[in-house]
Amino acid sequence: MHIKIFAGAALATALITTAASAQMGASPKSWNGFYVGGQLGYSSDIKGSSKETVTFDRNLDGTYGDAFPNFAPGSCPGSAVNGTAAAGCFSDSRNGQWKVMAGYDMQFGEDRGLVVGGVIDAGKQYYVNYVSTFSTTPASYVFGARLKENGTARVRAGYSFPTGTLAYGTGGVAYGKINNFFLSTNTVNTRTESGTKEGRWGYVYGGGLEQKVGNFSVGFLYTYTSLKNDDYVVRLSGGPATSPFTAQNASGTDLRRSKDSFGFHSAVATVAWHF
After folding, report:
1. What backbone torsions phi and psi does residue 12 show, to the nearest 5 degrees?
2. Spans of all domains in the chain
3. Could you read off the pLDDT tens digit of each residue along the chain, which spans 275 residues?
4. Dist. CA 204–CA 275, nearest whole Å
5. What is the DSSP string of 169-238?
6. Stated pTM of the model
């Protein structure tokens, strides 16, 4: 699925490049100057979360990874279908995103050569990532992270061809608002959440192709973004005297995701107006 999308986007960019080059004839306008534009595409984890688990700190010493025999082996990516491990999990969906952007480029050479610049973008993402685990009760325990907004500040550098095509790499800092949440079919124990702040910082890198068509440019951009997300913890406590969550510490057991970051891939189409 992902390969088809990336290949389709690359093919579309190649067709745009060919058509634009045929129409323009003379050397295209320089990439020098300011531009504004937008992005439209989708985000997905591409199953990077398939190795993620839910980990436990049963004695509340701050160290996770404690063995918990009351839980089924392993975890599954996605949200639990119901309270049994045998039912498995729903897969995370691939969701859309949109952004506005503004930037400035400098070109060294007339119709070809090095192009370097900077760009900022901001917009909405509609991506949710889950990981689930199951107790032998049976009951499900689901950690979810919903990306609400995302922005980046990046540098980009690449090569401009005589056809007005720019191939470039890009990287920089990223910021996002993540809503962490917890779902469980366990109605016996009390849950307490901590580390629920939404603002998260991280990094972004990727690359793209862009084609100049007069004062406009159209293109395709791929990026990978990783945001720090390591302080969300759920404590399960209370319940009956025989509760396994209070077996090693009367105050309960802490649960968290095994990964300390929220990562996602994005593939977007871009359009910009160059001043």
Report:
1. -60, -40
2. 2-274
3. 444 444 444 444 444 444 444 444 444 578 999 999 999 998 887 554 457 899 999 999 999 999 999 998 778 888 999 999 889 898 877 788 999 999 999 998 766 789 999 999 999 988 889 999 999 989 999 999 999 899 999 999 999 998 899 999 999 999 999 999 999 999 999 999 998 888 999 999 999 999 999 899 999 999 999 999 999 999 999 999 899 999 999 999 999 999 999 999 999 999 999 99
4. 27
5. EEEEEEEEEEEEEEEES--SSEEEEE----EEEEEEEEEEEEEEETTEEEEEEEEEEEEE----EEEEE-
6. 0.84
